[in-house]
Amino acid sequence: MPSDSVPFLESELEIGQINVYPKAAKEVEEYIYNEMMNYRKQIEAGTLTFEAAAKNILKIREVVKEAVPTR
């Protein structure tokens, strides 16, 4: 068959990805909320500086990152 008699068919391709991340358990949300409120109370009372609280939170984040596999 000659190449000029082959019909030209336009094609379109669409690629997508759906990401679904699990929601944290209610207990985890409550724990985190209570921890943040505890930091707030300590900062307001003057027993902890904001800088020290931030450093503590960053240390905890690093430990969690090492313990939890990446997505």
Present the secondary structure layout:
Elements: H1 26-45, H2 50-67
Q: How would you describe what is shown here?
A:
With 71 residues, the protein is mostly helical. The chain has one domain (22-71). 54% of the residues lie in helices and 0% in strands. The protein contains two helices and no strands. The chain has helices at 26-45, 50-67. It is rod-shaped, with a radius of gyration of 27 Å. The two termini are 51 Å apart.
**If you compute it from the alpha carbons, what radius of gyration comes out, rounded to the nearest whole angstrom?**
27 Å
Number of strands: 0
Low-confidence stretches: none
Taking all residues together, what is the mean pLDDT? 86
Helix content: 40-55%
> What gross morphology would you assign?
rod-shaped
Distance between the termini: 51 Å
Count of DSSP helices?
2
Total domain modules:
1
The helix-and-strand class reads mainly alpha
Q: What's this model, at a glance?
A:
This protein is mainly α and 71 residues long. The chain is built from 2 helices and no strands. It has one domain (22-71).
